[in-house]
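It would be a great kindness if you could assist me with a short task in structural biology. I am sending you one protein, given as its amino acid sequence and as whole-number tokens for its backbone shapes. I would ask you to consider whether the tokens describe a fold that such a sequence might reasonably adopt. The full record is reproduced below for your convenience.
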Amino acid sequence: MSTTAAEQAAMRRALELAATPGVPLGPNPRVGCVLLADDGSTVAEGFHRGAGTPHAEADALARAGDRARGTTAVVTLEPCNHTGRTAPCAQALIAAGVRRVVFAQSDPNPAAAGGADTLRAAGIEVESGLMTVESRLLNTVWTFAVEHGRPFVTWKFATTLDGRSAAADGTSRWVSSLASRRDTHRLRALCDVMLVGTNTVAVDDPLLTVRDDQDQPLPVQPLRAVMGERDLDPGRRLFNSDADSVHLRTRDPREALAELYARDRQHVFLEGGPTLAAAFLHADLVDEIVVYVAPMLLGAGRSAVADLGITTIADAFRPRVTDITVLDGDPDGNVRFTLTPERH
């Protein structure tokens, strides 16, 4: 791969543009684009602002106008090659007279891939692989969902030091601290589905919305999903007008994820009880675990996860710890563990 210092600097800038705060979550990846003149100066910049809006390349080309001819387009993702809600970016670059294209990550979506070949066939120089790792990190969830054909699943739970999520009398408010709950809402806002089981809805009646530090709902809410075959009271708070909701009438985690993926959902935040957690673990469908551990002991009560069928220590489920954080400003001293399960 041969790229210039100006192209490398432009890719870093394109990654910054792609990560612009406020871009809504959705079925599309975060993408940035910088157009460079022959002397390495920036002609125009663009980034994708969410589903239905111009892609990063189209945004940059529109800002450049006739000045786009003869430029180098530096893009964080391979220009798309299909017509969706917008026209193919590869064709737009060709029509604008772009001379060269440098991109980071190849498009894993077979419906959109092939842009590089289309550009080369039109006589445009193409270089790929510049800062691929950084681009994939920016779109970890989107890339996973496209490559696996299902949403990425984050399982979150709160527990005591002895692994209890509720006391013997069923009370669970509050196992976690206020700081933990606020941090949970921060993580909820990064997902596009909140998922629980029917028992959680029937017993706990959760609202399942994302709220700020003043307990006010954010303007953009994830889909609230409940899975299970039992009928539920339509008066449960999950079915109110605060956010969209859906009842997935299945006990099969794979079926539930397939239906959510068909709805263009890519990141599931699993907050159900121990039975639902065990079902996803049994199916090998947990991709990330976030645990808030409170420094308290109950000695009895509900376990954080139901029976996994493990009878000997040698068969213990052993996810890999990727982060340990003592929450800032938490007088209760709660600790957040982030773990990655090893694939079976």
Summary: Residues 5-18 form the longest helix (14 residues). Residues 153 and 261 are 12 Å apart (CA to CA). The first strand starts at residue 32 and ends at 36.
